[in-house]
Amino acid sequence: MRSSSSLVAALSLCAALAGCGGGGSDGGTPAPDITPLGANILVFDSDRTGNHEIYLMRNDGSASAQVTSDTSYENWWPRISPDRRKLLFYRSPRGSSERYDLASLWVVNVDGSGLTRLRAAGTDGWAVQGHGEWSPDGGSIAMFGGSATSPQIFITDSLGRFPRQLTARAGVNTDVSWSPDGRTLLFNGCPGTPCTPADYEIYTMPSAGGAETRLTFDHLADYDPYFSPDGTKIAWLTNSNPSAWSGAGAWGISLANADGSNPVWLIDDGNINSKPAWSLDGRSIYFHRMEPLVATKWGVYSMGADGTGLTALTSGSSANNEFPSN
Length: 326
What we know:
Helix content: under 10%
Oligomer: single chain
Strand order of the largest sheet: 3-2-1-24
Radius of gyration: 18 Å
Structural class: mainly beta
Distance between the termini: 26 Å
């Protein structure tokens, strides 16, 4: 159960820092008494208390507050709903963070109240599930799920029900996200068989279903593609040097036009950068990264949308801090 102190902290952060302006409906149970998070608030997860919990902080790294508190679980992959009143995230048993085979999908109000499980592990016979992303109108959730060896892309309603399968491709299909208008999905998948993680490429397809279009042709491991808020660009994660760091790889963040043209590196500095997340105004990108020569812990960072101004947001923490989202 949540401690009263963490609830008070989350409430205080929301009241003190939130702009109290929201977007559209989140499509689930209304939460009219919940103050929306301001545009300057990030959500992320951290193991600073031992297990991974969900936290909020300002986008300059200050004033963090804990939202979830249950030492029986790892809580990870948090996403803010379009109306900025709820958080979507995954849970798995303690000691099994980012285990898609053990993951259950949850939602909680941003003040820590209303904790609700949407999808238990194994729902609909799925062996794995992950990468849940709210649709721009909050009425649906895109995710991957199904077979452990060949997961596919699905869309559910806002409560995680009635999954509609969009892909039926060989190999792995994961890392789905929405365009700002909700009409298009990005995902990563295999260009052929056999399928190896070293050659995942980025694809796009209509959210209503239809043919996919391949966007990347770099024959590297490409993950976590996201449209910019204005829909003109995409940013994604690329393993630029798979042999680095004893096989963990050196990972960079790439940027291209929405059709995949004119790809450039935003950051490729030999370290392990991970999962880009755009700021609401499109001016910044948040991500977590590890500098193995400094510390083998993840930290939350920001940089400009042009790749300049790298800034550590959790530099005072000795814990893992990851999966930031605005």
